[in-house]
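Dear colleague,

Thank you for sharing your sequence with our group. We've completed the structure prediction you requested, and as agreed, I am returning the results in plain text so they can be pasted directly into your records. Please verify that the sequence below matches your submission; if there's any discrepancy, let me know and we will rerun it promptly.
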Amino acid sequence: MNQTVNADPAELAKFSDLAHRWWDPESEFRPLHQINPLRLEWINGLSPLQGQRVLDVGCGGGILADAMARKGAQVTGIDLSTKALRVAQLHALEAQTPDIEYREVSVETLAQEQPGSFDMVTCMEMLEHVPDPDSVVRACAALVKPGGWVFFSTINRNLKSFLFAIVGAEYVLNMLPRGTHEYAKFIRPSELAASCRAAELDLLHTRGLEYNPITQRYWLSADTSVNYLFATRRLG
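Please find the predicted structure tokens below.
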């Protein structure tokens, strides 16, 4: 695993500046609040969360981690944004969320500390924000038990995703702060699939995430041309 921290200081600063708004459903994080029920039910439908030990990589303010804990999982959320983690911890205390803890540690470091320790690993909306996404995929694979599930979500790299995820979401609809995403860091499904294979993760399910700006509704579909999700299992 990498000894250097696999993080972009500018990315950490960007999300740290917004940390106090993580749990405001009308804030810049509104899209995460809106898609959370979809991704939660998809994950739970493939691998029921009740009683599982789950790691949420790049947990931010804890929106998904908190929801998984409320489904009965024992959840650890990790991130490198101190401010976001403080917000997550405070929310867990105020909401009395059961069986949840947060740590400021890189996924690569945790993989060295606790290999094969988790029944499930989730890494959602994070790969497109790090310098070396392959390193994150390898670490996620190392952290899950053989046969355990690893879930990813990220953004495809093509003209449509540039128009929808950057021009549309950041500049036209103002759904996200400008500069949230960098096109060059988007990841094609074929590239992520290759990373998963190299990490001995078997890709079993793929879904797309679509959005209608008129109805302001999200839904899962077979269209992976912009946002997409992978469900993989560790071989062995």
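Summary note from our side: The CA atoms of residues 171 and 178 lie 7 Å apart.

Kind regards,
the structure core
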